[in-house]
Design goal:
Number of helices: 1
Number of domains: 1
Structural class: mainly beta
CATH topology: N-terminal domain of TfIIb
CATH architecture: Single Sheet
Order of helices and strands: HEEEEE
Mean pLDDT: 90
Helix content: under 10%
Number of strands: 5
Low-confidence stretches: none
Strand content: 35-45%
Distance between the termini: 18 Å
Shape: globular
Largest sheet: 5 strands, antiparallel
Length: 63
C-alpha cells in the first residue's frame, strides 16, 4: 500500500480483542481498510484513521 493507513508503531501493539492474536492491515473493499486477525479472521474497520477494535463492529470478510 502506497499511503500509510495506520502507523507501524500502532499496528505492532494492536491485537484482536477476541483471541488476543496479531492483526494485519488489509484492504477489504476498494479504498476501505481494516485490521484482520491472523487467527480468527475477524476484520476490524479503520474509520478516519482510527481502528475500531470493538467485537460488535467486526466484519466477516470472505477472501
Amino acid at each position: 500500500m502506497d499511503k500509510e493507513i495506520i502507523s507501524q508503531d500502532l499496528l505492532a501493539i494492536l491485537a484482536c480483542p477476541v483471541c488476543k492474536k496479531d492483526v494485519e492491515l488489509i484492504e477489504y473493499k476498494k479504498e476501505e481498510y481494516g485490521l484482520k486477525c491472523a487467527a480468527c479472521g475477524k476484520v476490524y474497520p479503520i474509520r478516519d484513521g482510527i481502528p475500531v477494535m470493538l467485537v460488535d463492529e467486526a466484519l466477516t470478510v470472505v477472501s
